[in-house]
Amino acid sequence: MIKNFVKQTVILFFLVILSSLAARGENASKMPRGINKHPIQVNENDINTKIMISRQLIRQGRFTDAAALLETIYEQNPDNVVVINLLRKCYENLQLSEKAEQLIGRYLKKHPDNFGYRLLYAETLANQAKFEQAGQAYDKAGALIENNNNVRWQLIIQSMITHNMDDKALSLIDNLRKKTADKNLFAFQRGSIFEKQKKYIDATLEFYSLLPDTTRLGNEAEKKLLALLAFDDSAEKVENTLLKQKHLLKNKRAVKILATYYLRSAQYKKAFEFTITQDSLGGFKGNSLVAYMNNCAERKLYPQALSMGDYIFRHYQNNPIMSEARFIYAQVLQQMGRYVEAVAVYDTIFAGSIYQRDKATALYQIGKIYRDDLHQYDHALVYFDSIRYNFSNGLSYTNILKDIAYCYLKKGDLKKAQTQFQQLL
User: Fold this and answer.
1) What is the pLDDT of residues 161-190, one digit of tens each?
2) Could you tell me if residue 169 is left (phi over 0), alpha (psi between -120 and 50 degrees) or otherwise beta?
3) Residue 231 CB neighbours (<10 A)
4) pLDDT tier at 148 (50, 70, 90 boundaries)?
5) CA distances from 20 to 13, 15, 70, 322 (A)
6) Is this model's pTM higher than 0.70 or not?
7) Cβ-contact 213, 252 below 8 angstroms
8) Coil, strand or helix: which one is 31?
9) Each residue of 37-49: pLDDT tens digit?
10) Closest by alpha carbon to 224, among 187, 250, 271?
């Protein structure tokens, strides 16, 4: 009896396994072809679970499987916006534009005043190169905008530009400018279109109108003009257009742009002149002049850096920028191998600065010149020792000990070098 019971149990167990495998094979054959090779076990009545699984599939890039699951939910819940958005995302990634068009169009029949979906519908049509229909769809989206809501108008214009409907976007901008009497409305978008069409003069005029803007838009317009000036095909036209502007020399950003451009293009005389003008527009504070010096030094344009330094020394005697300008000036002289002159400038900083940190830094730089460039180690030790005993708070005490040790090492005095290195332990 027991043997028969065990035998029947084993047979039943194998039958269950075989039927389970058969069911899995049947389900797999019915699945849409895609990345997924395993059936998705979900509770048919649990929509939230299905949506959660759909999101997981989308994150994994399994858009075909996600779309198949979402379509079953959509047929039962055609007004579920979450399902519609997820399904639309799948169609877009699968490049099923017609399905996306049908999906959004079906929703708009019930919700014709939904601006977001009107915009999506226009984009879906444009993606299929149905530009005439897309234009009409954009018009319907625009008809929903009230009280000159420029944020929504900008969404439409940017969408048109993204979907290669530049002429439609230009026409819309022109109409909105007439309607609002704002001649600079959407100048950035209009300029970007002209730039794409290689109408560089028109693009320059649009971006130029935004330079007085103190928001991010003004910064973006400045970047655009600098980029156009850096491009050989457009540089000359952009430069000439800017120079023709009536109040150019009163426009801080425009002057800064041209100063930057002239320096980059090795037109040093013009770069110098426009930098001086830029500083005058900034209230003669000298910051732009020092920035110019530093920029030249970094580009190894040493004569240009020294020329600006000489100008600062003549005209900004009591200005706080003097110390920074002198440091840059001395560093440039050092890079040019004019070590004695560099030491003289550092001496001037030490004598004239009211800040302990400046004094210590000046002495330190002199010490390095004597040690590394002039190889006069005894002179270097004098300056390093002076910092060690008089300005230990200004520079790292440990660093000074290292410099002194290296100085003795280069001098060949190994015993003193060892003593100094031991103090670091």
Assistant:
1) 999 999 999 999 999 999 999 999 999 999
2) alpha
3) 11
4) confident
5) 11, 9, 26, 86
6) yes
7) no
8) coil
9) 444 444 445 888 9
10) 187
